[in-house]
Specification:
The complex is a heterodimer of chains A (about 600) and B (about 375). In chain A, strands 13-12-11-14-15-16-22-19 form an eight-stranded mixed β-sheet, sandwiched between helices. Chain A has a five-stranded mixed β-sheet with strand order 3-2-1-4-10, sandwiched between helices. Chain A has a five-stranded parallel β-sheet with strand order 6-5-7-8-9, sandwiched between helices. Chain A has 17 helices and 22 strands. Helix content of chain A is about 35%, strand content about 25%. Chain A has three domains: about 90 residues, Ubiquitin-like (UB roll), CATH 3.10.20; about 150 residues, 3-Layer(aba) Sandwich (Rossmann fold); about 210 residues, no CATH class. In chain A, helix 2 crosses helix 6 and helix 15 packs antiparallel against helix 16. The longest helix of chain B is centred in the middle third of the chain and has 9 residues. In chain B, strands 1, 3, 12, 13, 14, 15, 16, 17, 18, 19, 20 and 21 form a twelve-stranded mixed β-sheet that branches. A five-stranded antiparallel β-sheet of chain B has the order 27-26-23-22-28, with no helix packed on it. At the A-B interface, helix 3, helix 4, helix 5, helix 9 and helix 11 of A face strand 5, strand 10, helix 4, strand 24 and strand 25 of B.
């Protein structure tokens, strides 16, 4: 690990070692600001016959070196550091999700309280949570033990009880884990790491339970010291330490890679979470980020400085496409498709995509169907996220007479689409859509933002690299995030409420680099040209009962920014409802797609 | 063990195939290097720790947890039988004693003075690992398992359900494009691997189960039929642990699709021979495909090696399109344009030109084809 003055860092090399591809980027200080200048990629080499992750890293970095005409790897195959004018880098950093990433099991006493906090800590650290064991999870103890035996997590996080509270329940949880003798996923020669982050008074008793051997017990501060407050930092830090010391150390070549990096290697999703938190903090905004992959969908959010991450394990576009269709149901998927499709053929088509996940849609119809599935996968993942990202449950509410008519309970979601400032998309179906209009439309249909929201996509999946960079050099990370990482699609202005079809929903007036004014009717969606680098102010006058950010019927004024798509004015209302009758639904959806020019024919297609 | 996935499924008349047979935990390996084993032979065995049963004695006896230890009639490590007294309260003046009998048989593993909970571990669970493939033991890892090697004909399928099994190959129907229906399956097919041609119907699979066939293999299956067979909609392709009483392997995909000529011809050639099959499919990192392994009695003469390099797309190569609009069609590569094309979907992708037997040509993304070894 290097201790380097951030002001001296002018050349940054970063890699993300994914399951299949290692992606490298070069960041340089150019004309007074940090910019991402070159990128390279190569297959990840963690599996046999290579079994050395650094080979893929060197290959991807060599590609950058050739493009940048800058020597980055020396004759011994090591990354050159520090930088001179013509070679090397000042710091090299990396993330990793190779080998399936970090997989954990968590346990707590009460599912909605300490177990939920433990899950938040694990997810926030970038882990996949395989299961949550709690005293009240509805399973009988021997079923819980059997489940623990069947899982092969990288580590286990145990929480339970507030500091000074009763110790019996959390020790009971430990007594379920110990006899199950769970085996670590990698390597039979190391003990299963257990992190205890529960009631501090139970530490001794818990230590005794795990005394017998086969476990490496690490004790950190209680992650829920009092019901009203979470303290996730120490548990997250310990998860990262163990990830490096045990999990990464088992993976081929990682010991060498760790000796090269100037900051600890982070799990990829943990790094994405960090960059979004950094940006939210520096710009004082609320952010939602989504990464939809073939198998899973990660959703990240920062609302009022509170970070949450969820992983929807079986919502994805290839390996899990069949599960999306099963969970969402086929009629819900098909409501986004403006033409008839044979359901039997469609079911076979979905399964064929599942068993041959690398195929791509060749026809427009196939693309439209996949994007319909993506809307549903994103909608379901966001729903799960909203249910998870809540205020702390179990906190006693003090009520006064004034609260008589607002019976708010603890455990309310903190995700508020009306206060969402920036929605960032990444993952193949969103990032590689042939037209960015399609990405924008998928985001709006699935997430249903309200009021004024900026839409963007991660250009080349650079967020993981910038996440690690934010721990070393937050300023450089933010500059590159804003200038090179994000492709701004535009701003969406979406009416909340149920506008009447054909009647006025809201009036708008745009001033600044471009001027425009008009009226949006209920059920209508419109696209105004508003290009990248254009800015302006929009004044919105909603109809009665319609909210655009200041309350129903109240005028709103906001700064807005253009993008590759433009300014989207959405009068369809929230929550978004589509006609039940199939032909009427098709006509409605076709109208929306036409209005936003979603499937415009740009070039003469071939092969259809 | 199934093989790692490469674009284009492996179908070969001969290969030297090696499999690892491993115990889940340390145990005894019952074979030595150079032993000849049959598919059904047990090569290693062990005992998994028994199931664990927690008993909350503090609750049952209405005692503080710390008092439970003093009431125990059994110590840690003691064996305990079903209904045997496990603990007894002191009672009052030696009377009104409360006795708790064990509801489980096993060994007392722990007695917790903190929670008042007693853990009883049941009898060990025996685990046996069979050879799965007939062949020669070529390496033994003490207490872990062994490797078995054989000269085999080997075929990968695209998707399967059900685990490892063996049986005699029995081809039904008249060709690789004939649907596999229930009427083709007869009572004398018990223990056999039934080979069909094109799509297999759920009625055919049910009939094969009725006659106690070991496996059923054909070109395609309808998703609706799979759902009916499993009783649920398969969301993620991780299979192999289904308890259907039969292993099902689909060689080509979902829908009306005929088995590849070469696969069908090979299975027909080996009719009557015993094969090992495994339906386990895992389509994620570390991909596994279902497999059909036919041990050979003698090594066939070296086949005339194909004129093409393995896995390499070249003009003249036979391939199958694996995505609409030409899903399932077989043709030959007629051109490999270097520049990406804009597809009907609007995406840019690298493509190839394929010529179908009818002479019709089509442009297809390279990601949407699968090579067929000739």
């Amino acid at each position: 690990m290097t201790n380097i003055d951030p002001d001296q860092i002018k050349v940054i090399l970063a890699t993300d070692c994914g399951s299949t591809t290692t992606k490298a980027i070069l960041i340089q200080y150019v004309d007074g600001e940090y910019r991402q200048t070159h990128r390279g990629e190569a297959p990840t080499t963690v599996e046999k016959p290579f079994a050395d992750v650094t080979m893929g890293v060197v290959n991807s970095v060599t590609e950058i070196a050739e493009l940048a005409d800058r020597r980055l790897v020396d004759d011994d195959g090591r990354i050159i550091s520090p930088a001179t004018d013509t070679e090397g880098c000042d710091i090299y950093i990396s993330t990793s999700s190779a080998g399936g990433g970090l997989q954990m099991m968590v346990a707590g006493v009460i599912a909605e309280m300490t177990a939920a906090s433990a899950k938040r800590a694990a997810l926030g650290a970038g882990s996949i949570v395989m299961d949550v064991i709690a005293a009240n999870d509805g399973r009988r103890p021997h079923d819980q033990i059997q489940r623990i035996r069947d899982l092969r997590p990288d580590m286990i996080l145990i929480s339970g009880g507030t500091d000074g509270g009763t110790t019996g329940k959390v020790v009971q949880i430990a007594e379920l884990v110990a006899p199950a003798k769970p085996q670590p996923r990698f390597g039979s020669d190391y003990s299963m790491p257990i992190i205890y982050a529960g009631n501090k008074d139970a530490r001794e008793a818990v230590s005794e339970v795990f005394d017998e051997g086969g476990f490496d017990l690490q004790i950190v501060d209680n992650l829920r010291p009092v019901l009203e407050r979470e303290n996730l930092g120490p548990a997250r830090d310990k998860i990262h330490d163990i990830f490096l010391e045990h999990v990464m150390a088992q993976a081929p070549g990682y010991e060498k890679l760790m000796s090269w990096t100037g900051a600890p290697i982070m799990p990829t999703p943990g790094a994405v979470g960090d960059i979004l938190q950094t940006v939210a903090r520096l710009q004082d905004i609320n952010v939602v980020g989504v990464d939809i992959g073939g198998a899973t969908t990660d959703v990240f959010s920062v609302f009022e400085k509170t970070f949450n991450r969820t992983v929807s394990a079986n919502l994805g576009m290839s390996y899990s496409i069949s599960n999306v269709c099963a969970e969402a149901t086929m009629p819900n998927v098909l409501r986004w498709v403006p033409f008839d499709m044979n359901e039997r053929e469609l079911r076979n088509h979905v399964k064929n995509k599942m068993i041959r996940p690398t195929t791509i849609p060749q026809t427009r119809e196939a693309l439209m169907f996949e994007q319909a599935v993506a809307r549903e996968a994103l909608r379901l993942a966001y729903k799960q996220h909203k249910e998870f990202a809540t205020t702390l449950k179990g906190v006693q509410q003090q009520r006064t007479v004034g609260d008589t008519f607002s019976q708010q309970t603890s455990g309310q979601t903190i995700v508020n689409n009306m206060t969402l400032d920036l929605l960032v998309a990444s993952g193949g179906v969103l990032s590689h859509a042939p037209r960015m209009h399609q990405t924008a439309m998928m985001l709006i249909d699935a997430f249903e933002p309200e009021g004024v929201t900026m839409l963007a996509k991660d250009s080349i999946f650079m967020m993981p690299h910038l996440g690690v960079l934010s721990s070393v050099h937050p300023k450089a990370a933010e500059q590159v995030f804003d200038r090179d990482c994000l492709v701004y699609l535009g701003t969406s202005v979406c009416a909340a409420g149920q506008p009447k079809a054909g009647k006025s929903c809201f009036k708008y007036e745009l001033t600044g680099d471009r001027t425009a004014s008009g009226e949006i009717s209920g059920g209508e969606i419109q696209l105004l040209p508003f290009e990248e680098h254009e800015t302006g102010t929009i004044t919105l006058s909603p109809a009665r009962g319609i909210d655009l950010g200041e309350g129903a019927g109240k005028k709103v004024q906001r700064s807005v920014r253009g993008g590759t798509v433009g300014l989207i004015l959405d009068g369809r209302g929230r929550s978004l409802t589509l006609p039940e009758e199939r032909s009427s639904c098709q006509a409605t959806v076709q109208g929306w797609l036409d209005a936003l020019d979603v499937y415009k024919e740009e070039t003469e297609p071939v092969g259809v | 063990m199934a093989k790692a996935y490469t674009p284009g499924l492996l179908v070969t008349r001969h290969k030297k195939h090696r499999i690892m047979r491993r115990l889940p935990i340390s145990g005894d390996v019952r074979v030595k290097i150079n032993d000849q084993v049959n598919a059904g032979d047990i090569v290693a065995e062990t005992n998994l720790p028994g199931n664990v049963h927690p008993v909350n004695l503090a609750n049952q006896m209405s005692l503080p947890p710390a008092d439970v230890v003093a009431c125990m009639l059994k110590a840690e490590g003691d064996a305990i039988a079903l209904d045997e007294p496990m603990a007894q309260s002191k009672g009052m003046f030696g009377m009104f004693k409360n006795t708790v009998k064990s509801r489980f048989e096993g060994t007392v593993e722990t007695i917790s003075p903190v929670t008042g909970q007693v853990i009883i571990r049941g009898a060990p669970l025996p685990v046996q690992v069979k050879a799965y493939m007939s062949g020669q033991v070529v390496s033994v890892s003490e207490h872990e398992g062994c490797e078995i090697e054989a000269d085999v004909a080997y075929m990968q399928g695209i998707f399967g359900v059900g685990g490892e099994t063996q049986g005699k190959i029995r081809v039904v129907g008249s060709g690789h494009d004939q649907e596999l229906t229930a009427d083709l399956i007869t009572d004398d097919m018990a223990g056999c691997l039934i080979i069909g041609g094109a799509r297999m119907t759920v009625e055919a699979i049910q009939r094969a189960r009725e006659v106690k066939a070991a496996g059923i293999i054909s070109g395609g299956i309808d998703d609706q039929d799979l759902k009916e067979l499993l009783g649920y909609d398969l969301g993620v392709a991780i299979t192999g642990r289904e308890n259907l009483g039969i292993t099902v392997i689909v060689t080509e995909g979902f829908g009306e699709i005929a088995m590849a000529d070469r696969t069908y011809a090979m299975l027909r050639e080996f009719e009557g021979r015993v094969a090992s099959i495994n339906g386990a499919t895992q389509i994620r990192a570390g991909v596994m495909r279902p497999e059909i392994i036919i041990p050979l009695e003698s090594v066939p003469p070296a086949a005339n090696e194909g004129q093409f390099e393995e896995g390499q797309l070249e003009a003249g190569r036979l391939l199958r399109v694996i995505r609409d609009p030409w899903f399932g069609m077989i043709g030959k590569v007629s051109d490999l344009p270097a520049k990406p094309h804009v597809l009907g979907s609007g995406s840019k992708a690298r493509v190839l030109e394929v010529t179908f037997p009818s002479g019709e040509k089509a442009i297809v993304p390279r990601a949407n084809v699968e090579l067929i070894e000739e």
